[in-house]
Specification:
Blueprint: E1 5-11, H1 25-38, E2 46-51, H2 55-66, E3 74-80, E4 83-85, E5 91-93, H3 103-106, E6 108-109, H4 110-119, E7 124-130, E8 142-143, H5 149-152, E9 158-162, H6 184-195, E10 205-207, H7 208-222, E11 229-233, E12 240-243, H8 276-279, E13 290-294, E14 297-301, H9 316-330, H10 344-352, E15 368-371, E16 374-381, E17 386-395, E18 398-408, H11 419-428
Helix pairs in contact: 1-6, 2-4, 6-7
Length: 429
């Protein structure tokens, strides 16, 4: 890998302010991610770590990291810990000495990070945030909507990836209370790099887009309430994050050529997706009282839905993409579909679902909802009380099936055993 690759890993696990929960995951995550990125056979990054340091020290390290870089340098900045908002909805990253009542003087301000990134000459900057950005840090607070992380960090040649954005938890493990040794998000990130599973097209390299798609699917499977997000701003080419381990007898091809990247967001803007986690289950008419206390902060997440979202003729293109993938699946021909048309999570679900003895019914336009560039369609299984849902997202190269899932028709919940539970229902019919 080229020499001009640098990473700064910042993690905060311990806090003097009793309002902030002590965390186990960030320190472990920092160590694991740093090792994967620094390994010559994987990331080949020059890596520095900053763990459990006061705000002034973290600010100096961040500023020094971006200072004096060249235009072609690839820079990756990672944060793990608590994310809080002040009364003016300004975002801060908590450090060991942060006071929740005085974040401006005791925490790392997102505005500061944005400024030093904007002043840096590098046009290949990656910002990864594994924290809850809701700023709700008291048990029982209810919230909805988005903190607009992408907008806070918009800049030329920049990609922002977050563990979650729309006032969600960044979950640690499968526990509702207490701590776990690894964050679900970063665990998927590290596993995708170490195993090479994030090399979705099998060319021997893991691009940032592939890594995000892999992590998105893993996180969604583990914690359906948490959805990672990605924004790309005027990126000048493909960003290769790592090499994938070579299989026996395989030789590595030359590094992929830089290809022009889309200037639009990699996924639709969060402001347009406030109801996204409801829309992915089109038959659901209401979700309420979904509470969770996890890792970063304590917060109750309440979402309700009544009626139906706009179903317009403009959804036809997205529906056509899901129908095409549906028919391909029914023909048992998914192997012919590349990663550019079918994300890893959706491929895994479709591969695990049998098409007999009962197959779902083709979706009509009325079975689809969303926006023109983000369409979810449901395919019902006659008489079984379940349905298959697929989400098509429009990228620069066209629509791609980003997620798939199987749910109960009466309440929109997944069976206890997920896709395997649905498969057993179909096989027993």
């Amino acid at each position: 890998m080229p020499d001009d690759r640098f990473a700064l890993i910042v993690a905060s696990s311990r806090y003097t302010d009793a309002t902030l929960t002590q965390l186990d995951a960030p320190a472990h995550d920092a160590e694991a991610l740093a090792a994967a990125l620094a390994a010559p056979e994987i990331g080949g990054f020059d890596v520095a770590t900053v763990v459990d340091q006061p705000a002034t020290q973290v600010m100096q390290e961040v500023e020094a990291f971006f200072d004096g870089r060249k235009r072609d340098d690839l820079l990756l900045l990672y944060f793990s810990g608590h994310g809080i908002l002040d009364d003016g909805a300004r975002l801060y990253f908590a450090t060991v000495d942060t006071r929740v009542d005085r974040p401006r003087s005791t925490a790392l301000a997102a505005a500061f990070v944005n400024d030093v990134m904007s002043e840096c000459r590098s046009r290949s900057q990656v910002l990864v945030l594994d924290c809850c950005n809701s700023g709700a840090f008291a048990r029982g607070i209810k919230a909805s909507g988005s903190v607009g992380t992408g907008g806070r960090f918009e800049g030329r040649g920049r990609v922002v990836i977050t563990a979650s954005d729309a006032l969600q938890y960044a979950f640690e493990g499968d526990r509702i209370e207490g701590n776990a040794p690894r964050s679900v998000f970063t665990e998927a990130l590290v596993d995708g790099l170490n195993s090479g599973a994030a090399d979705l097209d099998g060319d021997g390299y893991v691009t940032l887009d592939e890594l995000y798609d892999y992590v998105y699917g893993r996180v969604l499977d583990a914690t359906p309430l948490q959805r990672p997000r990605k924004w790309a701003f005027d990126v000048e080419g493909r960003l290769v994050i790592a090499q994938a381990p070579l299989r026996e007898g395989q030789s590595r091809a030359p590094a992929p050529a830089q290809a022009p990247a889309s200037r639009r967001e990699a996924r639709p803007g969060v402001a347009q997706r406030a109801w996204s986690f409801v829309r992915r289950r089109p038959l659901v008419t209401g979700l309420a009282a979904l509470g969770a206390l996890v890792a970063v902060t304590a917060i109750a997440f309440l979402v309700t839905r009544s009626g139906s979202l706009g179903r317009q003729p403009s959804l036809a293109a997205g529906r056509a993409a899901t129908i095409d993938m549906f028919e391909t699946w029914r023909r048992h021909d998914l192997a012919s579909v590349g990663s550019g048309k079918l994300a890893a999570q959706a491929r895994e679900v479709l591969t695990a679902l049998p098409t007999s003895p009962v197959a779902p019914v083709t979706a009509t336009l009325g079975d689809c909802s969303g926006e023109p560039d983000d369409v979810s369609c449901s395919f019902s299984y006659p008489g079984l009380g379940i349905y298959l849902s697929m989400e098509a997202i429009k990228y620069a190269a066209g629509f791609r099936i980003a997620t798939a899932g199987c749910y109960y028709s009466d309440n929109g919940n997944a069976p206890k055993d997920g896709t395997e539970g649905c498969a057993r229902i179909i096989q027993r019919s």
